[in-house]
Amino acid sequence: MEVISVANIKFAFEDKASAKIIDDISFSTGEYEFVSIIGPSGCGKSTLLRIIAGLIAPTSGRISYYGNAVTEPIKDISFVFQDSALLPWLTNIENVKIGLSSTDLKDNVKNKKALEILKRFELNGFEYAYPNILSGGMKQRVGVARALVSDPKVILMDEPFSSLDELTARSLREEVSNMLKDKSLSLMSVIMVSHNVEEVVELSDKVVILSNKPSLVKEIKKIDLPYPRNRHDKDFQKTVDEVFARLSP
Questions:
Q1: H or E stretch including 123?
Q2: Which of 24, 85, 131, 154 could cysteine-pair with 81, CB 3.0–4.6 Å?
Q3: Separation between Cα atoms, residue 49 and residue 73, nearest integer Å
Q4: Which CA distances in Å does 146 have to 81, 87, 231?
Q5: Which secondary-structure segment (H or E) carries 26?
Q6: What integer is the mean pLDDT of 184-203?
Q7: Could you tell me the CATH superfamily of domain 1-76+153-161+186-249?
Q8: Contact 37, 45 (CB under 8 A)
Q9: What distances in angstroms separate CA 191 from CA 102, 118, 132, 200, 206, one per listed residue?
């Protein structure tokens, strides 16, 4: 069953042909599917992700969530930003509770849910600290926790690991991947924008490879490698080379 459907999306600033960013993009995500979007810098990857989230209206085309049009942000779709986007004047638990601001839960329930998700991301002990004392990796964990605390069905991730050291990024990639595979959770699909080919091959069931702007879909490549994936495996390296080849002009 399709979770997210991206159908013939086009986007241009002020509808001018010279400002066209996205020409015609279509793809879908299935249940328990991790989909990555990759392409050259400036091809509109982040813009496309914001269109899927309902934060930006496309020039034309349609975004659907389980068949229903997405024209504004909805509670079942959460967003993880590249720089964590934490509010420095709020404690970490208060930042996480922002993800529950649109719910009618009582405050004690919000506190409980926020504490549980912070513990899952190994942030217990830092719940009432402020973001300024956290490392970059810990801040990003708080950002992911905020996106997950509302039990969304879909998470959209905009280069979430790009600013992290490799050990921290590896740990967080593994956590997100495991959560998608955990059938006891609400999460049904992840869509990630990335420029890191190895990361994309490691995580994805499917990769949407975009052209230069105005961007089109060059290929939708399925990644059939078994989990967990070993970056030193010859089939892994072969797949990385294939994705690199399709990214080339």
A1: none
A2: 85
A3: 12
A4: 11, 12, 30
A5: strand 20-30
A6: 93
A7: P-loop containing nucleotide triphosphate hydrolases (3.40.50.300)
A8: yes
A9: 22, 22, 29, 11, 10
